C-alpha cells in the first residue's frame, strides 16, 4: 500500500515529474505549472524545465547573465522572478511576459527595445540596480502595465512624456535616484503633483544636482527661469556690403542665448552634400551625408560658435544653418552664401 499512497500524495499536491533536480515543479490549474528554483545557489538557468511552466522563480541565486537560449524550453512563461541575483547582462529577446522582477541585481544597461514586444506586461520591477539611461520611448507599448518600480537606480533625468503611454499605471516608484533638477526635469514635478498614480516616498524623489538643490525633494524645487534658446548669425565680411569672390576667407558668427547655455553646431547644405559640423574642433573633419566628403580643413569651428571657411569657392556655396540646443529646446537660423 505504501507505494500507492506515495503516488496518491504526489498527484494530490500536483508535484510534477521531469523537473530538473535543483527545482520543485508544481502543477496548477488549467495545465499551468510553477517551477520553484529560488535559493538554490544557481549560476545559470537550469536545463530540462517542463515546457508548460508559466511561473518561473529564480530569485536569490547567483545568476550573472540572462541568455536568450536559457528560455528556449519554457516559451509559455508569463511570470519571471529574478530578484536578488548578480545579473549584469541581458541578451535581447525576452519572453512574452506579464510579470517580471529584475530588482536587486547589478544591471547597468538594459535592452529597452525588448519591452516594445511585451505589450501584455502588467508588473515591471527594476529597482535597486545601476541603471542610468532611460529612453523616452522605453514604455511606449506597455498600455497594460499596472506597477512600475525603477527606484534606487542611477537615473539623473527622466524625459518628459516617458510615462504618457502607461494608461493603466496605478503604482510608480521612482525615489532614490540621483536626479539633476534642472529645467529638463521640472515637468516631472508638475506631473507628479497632478497625476492620480500612486507615487510613494515622494520626499525621497530628491535632487543630487545642482549643488544648490542637493538633497531637496523635487516637489520643493522653486520655479526656474528656463528661456527657450535663441540664436543669431552674421558674417565677416558683411555680405550686405561685400561681394564674395573665389578664395575669400569667410567667417560666419553664431551667438546664442538660453538657460542652460545652448550648445552650438552648424549644418551645411551645398549642391552636392549635406554636412553636420559640430564643435569645438580645430581643425575639423566634417561628416558628410550620402558618401560625399569634403576635405579636412574646409571648415573650422571655434569654441565661440564661429565657422571659418578659409578658401570659399563654388563648392562651398549653399545654406549655412546654426543650431542652438539645450535641455529646454532648440532654435536655428540660416543664411545662404554664394559667389
Automatic annotation (TrEMBL):
Keywords: Disulfide bond, Leucine-rich repeat, Repeat, Signal
Occurrences of domain Ig-like (ranges): 237-339
Chain positions covered by the region annotation Disordered: 271-290
Alphabetical list of PROSITE patterns matching this protein: IG_LIKE
Leader peptide range in chain numbering: 1-18
Protein's UniProt name: Immunoglobulin superfamily containing leucine rich repeat
Species in which this protein is naturally found: Pelodiscus sinensis (Chinese softshell turtle)
Amino acid at each position: 500500500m505504501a507505494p500507492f499512497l506515495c503516488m496518491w500524495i504526489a498527484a494530490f499536491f500536483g508535484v510534477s515529474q521531469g523537473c530538473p533536480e535543483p527545482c520543485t515543479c508544481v502543477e496548477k490549474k488549467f495545465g499551468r505549472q510553477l517551477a520553484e528554483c529560488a535559493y538554490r545557489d544557481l549560476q545559470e538557468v537550469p536545463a530540462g524545465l517542463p515546457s508548460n511552466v508559466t511561473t518561473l522563480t529564480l530569485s536569490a541565486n547567483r545568476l550573472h547573465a540572462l541568455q536568450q537560449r536559457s528560455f528556449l524550453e519554457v516559451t509559455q512563461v508569463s511570470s519571471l522572478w529574478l530578484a536578488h541575483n548578480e545579473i549584469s547582462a541581458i541578451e535581447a529577446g525576452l519572453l512574452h511576459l506579464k510579470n517580471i522582477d529584475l530588482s536587486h541585481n547589478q544591471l547597468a544597461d538594459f535592452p529597452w527595445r525588448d519591452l516594445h514586444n511585451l505589450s501584455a506586461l502588467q508588473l515591471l520591477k527594476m529597482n535597486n540596480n545601476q541603471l542610468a539611461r532611460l529612453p523616452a520611448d522605453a514604455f511606449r507599448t506597455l498600455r497594460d502595465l499596472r506597477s512600475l518600480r525603477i527606484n534606487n537606480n542611477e537615473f539623473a533625468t527622466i524625459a518628459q512624456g516617458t510615462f504618457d503611454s502607461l494608461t493603466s499605471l496605478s503604482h510608480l516608484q521612482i525615489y532614490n535616484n540621483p536626479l539633476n533638477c534642472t529645467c529638463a526635469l521640472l515637468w516631472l514635478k508638475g506631473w507628479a503633483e497632478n497625476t492620480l498614480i500612486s507615487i510613494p516616498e515622494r520626499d525621497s524623489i530628491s535632487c543630487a544636482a545642482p549643488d544648490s538643490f542637493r538633497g531637496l525633494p523635487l516637489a520643493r524645487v522653486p520655479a526656474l527661469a528656463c528661456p527657450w534658446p535663441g540664436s543669431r548669425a552674421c558674417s565677416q565680411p558683411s555680405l550686405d556690403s561685400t561681394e564674395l569672390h573665389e578664395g575669400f576667407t569667410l567667417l560666419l558668427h553664431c551667438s546664442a542665448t538660453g538657460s542652460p547655455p545652448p550648445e552650438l553646431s552648424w549644418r551645411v547644405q551645398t549642391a552636392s552634400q549635406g554636412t553636420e559640423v559640430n564643435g569645438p574642433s580645430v581643425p575639423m573633419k566634417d561628416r558628410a551625408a550620402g558618401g560625399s566628403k569634403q576635405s579636412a580643413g574646409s571648415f573650422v569651428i571655434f569654441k565661440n560658435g564661429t565657422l571659418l571657411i578659409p578658401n570659399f569657392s563654388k563648392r562651398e556655396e549653399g545654406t549655412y544653418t546654426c543650431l542652438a540646443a539645450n535641455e529646454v529646446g532648440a532654435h536655428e537660423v540660416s543664411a545662404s552664401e554664394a559667389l
